[in-house]
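ok here's the first one, seq then struct tokens
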Amino acid sequence: MKKYIALLRGINVGGHKKIKMVELKKVLAANRFQEVQTYIQSGNILFKAEKQTSLELAEKIHCLIESRFGFQVPVLIITFEELQHILDNNPFGKKPEENQLFFTLLKTPPQHEKVSEFNKYQFENEDFYITQNCVYLSFTRSYRNAKLNNNFIENKLKVEATTRNLKTMKKLLELSEN
């Protein structure tokens, strides 16, 4: 068995795509996911499963959600090691306040041409750094009204993505260590 973290995009936001985590845990447990644990209502799930690719697991969870809850939700899977690597390689270091650092996790690596085009963008009070699996975001103001948001990143890089703040990323790492 291997530990994984599933990150769901766009659930329980503004009354749309509502999923109770208790129900989701039951669905996953009934489908051979083990030690299922959730963190907050925004779609963070820790679990163990037989070793599979991240894309296979994401597709399985995607299909289970669509079948049980009646709508599609983008699902991204990472391992404990990948999460640790993302946090350890934060290019912004400890400079930003915790509430100013965000991570947009990418389901698949973006094409080189898309990254080159994206790197030309500049936004006041917003900074970014792109890797194969993450766009690191640093804001001197709130993420709430940022131009560098999840939709913008998905649109420009042409990959599915989901964004988490530093506090959530640290908590997911802590929970996956136990």
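and now the second one, same deal
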Amino acid sequence: MTVRLNVEALELEQKKHGYMNDTQLAAAIGVSVTQLWRAKLPVDDDRHNSPGPAFIGGVINAFGGPFEKYFFLEKVVRVRTSNSA
């Protein structure tokens, strides 16, 4: 199982709380802008990263729960392949 970010729900909460950009949102949840950007990318993008415990905790602390409002579990785990030739 992999934790995935509900990007739409997070972005709605971002607007609701007046965070105008991802830099402000990242500071509010205590992660880097890069972590936030990677979590928001589509799952099939090789640069995508699933949110970790600090990210999840930061979102819950900043906006309240429940976990299921912002995150979901995905049964299929994506396997990254090397593009080296």
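notes on #2: The chain has a mean pLDDT of 91. The helical segments are 7-16, 22-29, 33-40, 53-63, 67-70.
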